[in-house]
Amino acid sequence: MYAIVRTGGKQYQVATGDTLRVEKLKGEVGETVELSDVLLVADGENIRVGVPAVEGAKVVAKIVEQGKAKKVLVFKKKKRKGYRVMRGHRQMFTALSIQEIM
């Protein structure tokens, strides 16, 4: 059984027992989170597709980690002008462990 959920402007295919990193969600480590924006639920031959979301479907996940991803360096330069800018960015994330698909 798997589902496709939307969170943080992105879509993820999840199954029970999976661990995934999503955009930062509110909550502490150990708390449970319900992802109610479920776009598709598939259980063998039985597939339910939502328009845009499946009615009554939800995914229950447990927060495993709150953290920052590795640093991404952004370098800008304009030739012959002496313009050089180096910036870094670390995106906040939440690691989720999928407990149940309903």
From TrEMBL:
<dbReference type="InterPro" id="IPR018258">
    <property type="entry name" value="Ribosomal_bL21_CS"/>
</dbReference>
<comment type="subunit">
    <text>Part of the 50S ribosomal subunit. Contacts protein L20.</text>
</comment>
<dbReference type="GO" id="GO:0003735">
    <property type="term" value="F:structural constituent of ribosome"/>
</dbReference>
<dbReference type="InterPro" id="IPR036164">
    <property type="entry name" value="bL21-like_sf"/>
</dbReference>
<dbReference type="InterPro" id="IPR028909">
    <property type="entry name" value="bL21-like"/>
</dbReference>
<keyword id="KW-0699">rRNA-binding</keyword>
<dbReference type="GO" id="GO:0006412">
    <property type="term" value="P:translation"/>
</dbReference>
<keyword id="KW-0687">Ribonucleoprotein</keyword>
<comment type="function">
    <text>This protein binds to 23S rRNA in the presence of protein L20.</text>
</comment>
<dbReference type="GO" id="GO:0019843">
    <property type="term" value="F:rRNA binding"/>
</dbReference>
<dbReference type="InterPro" id="IPR001787">
    <property type="entry name" value="Ribosomal_bL21"/>
</dbReference>
<dbReference type="GO" id="GO:0005737">
    <property type="term" value="C:cytoplasm"/>
</dbReference>
<dbReference type="GO" id="GO:1990904">
    <property type="term" value="C:ribonucleoprotein complex"/>
</dbReference>
<protein>
    <recommendedName>
        <fullName>Large ribosomal subunit protein bL21</fullName>
    </recommendedName>
</protein>
<keyword id="KW-0694">RNA-binding</keyword>
<dbReference type="Pfam" id="PF00829">
    <property type="entry name" value="Ribosomal_L21p"/>
</dbReference>
<keyword id="KW-0689">Ribosomal protein</keyword>
<comment type="similarity">
    <text>Belongs to the bacterial ribosomal protein bL21 family.</text>
</comment>
<dbReference type="GO" id="GO:0005840">
    <property type="term" value="C:ribosome"/>
</dbReference>
